Amino acid sequence: MRKPVVDLKKFRLSRITQPEYRHFLYIGTWLIYLIMHLLTESLIPVDKCYVVHSALDDVIPFCEYFIIPYVSWYLLIAVSIVYFALYSPENFKRMMIFMLVVQMLGMVIYIVFPNRQDLRPEVFPRDNFCTDIVKLIYSMDTNTNVCPSMHVAISVALVSTWLKEKPVSVWARVFVVVFCLVVCISVVFVKQHSVVDIYAAMPVCLVAEVIAFWNYWKEGFSKNKK
Question: For the whole model, what pTM was predicted?
Fold first, then answer.
């Protein structure tokens, strides 16, 4: 088993500015996002939001079982943060920059183009454990600020980073790719997002990819020219 390049046993909060642990500070970017998310959620009235909708949304049925990959996404984020923070600090920083860029661009879009979706079912077709989780998610998360989808954008950030982590097995990388694809699909089946929100996340991710992994692609192009 690979040994972590960061010795967590010696970590103390007072040592966070030291070179070995300085990359942990990037976790604070999530606090910035959460504050901005709460502000946009509370300050932008629902009636001022443009309704995002696609004809394809009406064809896609509600399926509560997709809430399982939808919420498991949070676990994958946590696992990825811990792994890269301990085993690959450089990719950790790049991943966090990718996430910060999509989050900040998303916030700008939500402010300039406030939006919402009205796809949530008024009555659930079934009553089970999964619908209970969906009800809980609905109660905690409003139907505003949906386009672009952060579930999709951050999934792309995870996939992009894991695919560049060469020490990880091919099967692990394949798992992440497949899992994130299912997560991206799940957002429309649990009616948290419109199909449009998935499309809108792609150009945002492209900008983040260039900013976060510019040196990676630059080195790749340089090697190909030789």
Answer: 0.92
Give the Cβ contact number of residue 220 at 10 Å: 12
Residue with tokens 């009205």: 118
Which of 6, 12, 13 shows the shortest CA–CA distance to 88? 6
- Is 183 within 8 Å of 70 (Cβ atoms)? yes
Angle at 112 between CA 111 and CA 118, to 5 degrees: 70
Q: What is the dihedral of CA 162, 167, 172, 178, to 10 degrees?
A: 30
How many C-beta neighbours within 10 Å does residue 72 have? 14
What is the tens place of the pLDDT at every residue in 166-206?
899 999 999 999 999 999 999 999 999 999 999 999 999 99
With left for phi above 0 and alpha for psi between -120 and 50, is residue 62 left, alpha or beta? beta
Is a pLDDT exceeding 80 seen at residue 222? no
The dihedrals phi and psi of 169, each to the nearest 5 degrees, come to -65, 155
